[in-house]
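Supplementary notes for students who missed Thursday's class. We covered one full example, reproduced here. Read the sequence, then the structure, then the short commentary at the end.
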Amino acid sequence: MFTDESLATSSSRQHIDLVLQVARSYYLDNRTQSQIARDIGYSRPTVSRLLKESRDSGMVHITIGHELEHIRDVEQRLKRKYGIKHARVAEVHDEENPGNVVPKYAAALFCEECKPDSLITVSNGRAVAATVHEMPICEWPKSNVAQMIGALSPDNPMIDSPDICRMLASRLGGTFTDLPVPMILSNAKIANSMRKEPQIATTLALGGGADIAIVGVGAATDDRLGHIFDEYVDTATARALHRRGVVGHICGHLINAEGQHIHSDLCDRTISIDLERLKRIPLVIGVAWGAVKVNAIHACLVGKLISALVTDQKTAEALLAM
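Structure (token representation):
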């Protein structure tokens, strides 16, 4: 570092001017050391020494970096904090919609980890549907997609689980095993009988034995459980469940802040893969983002309900801050 005294004399200033001239020519004008040596009338070793001096004195600051470097750091911290196998974090710019970016990352992770002969299961919801839309066309005739949760109400405008599974099977070039039953039935007795039906029992067993799963994460607020429950749960029931500690849901199951299942009458009427089976699937990719879902995603992570997370940077940093 040059001191104030070094600027006092003409000879010192001339030397500093020379060092600056060499540094600018090399780092800004992209001239070679030999070219600079000819320009200033010095030898190439002298130019090399002057460049070293420019760095050692602090005149030149060399920064090597890329946005991916920070993203990688965030991903590694998520993996360490929550003990998950994979974290894929999308950088979403202010003018972008996470719903148009994050699913691309989720589809990429799925394709990297899935094998051509895999048994796959998926839940419902916008994030899962958007992820499937981003899947490339493959030729995986030995793959099978099993539906893990029953169909939504006909009045629900969301893309439903049967459609998502069928679309994924079509993109992969594989087969599809459907679950021909509503997600939530009118009473527990009917739901229990339906679970014993051979086709339904077989499909749920297939889903539970899958190699890889793609699931969404839903947030519960003090007056609503989320889109998939809109036709089944009124505001009073949602508030009562929120008071019991429900912060979110995954695959139709309500969970608290620790990722533990909160049992309710709704559970007895729901047709879906159970959470213990979900935990045994080797890779469960959770796709979710947004401030409203941070608590629910955190619950799924600490409860070991998902083993991979795909989200955006803001959501990832909020999770790391918890």
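Commentary. The mean pLDDT is 91. DSSP finds 14 helices and ten strands in the chain. If anything here is unclear, bring it to office hours.
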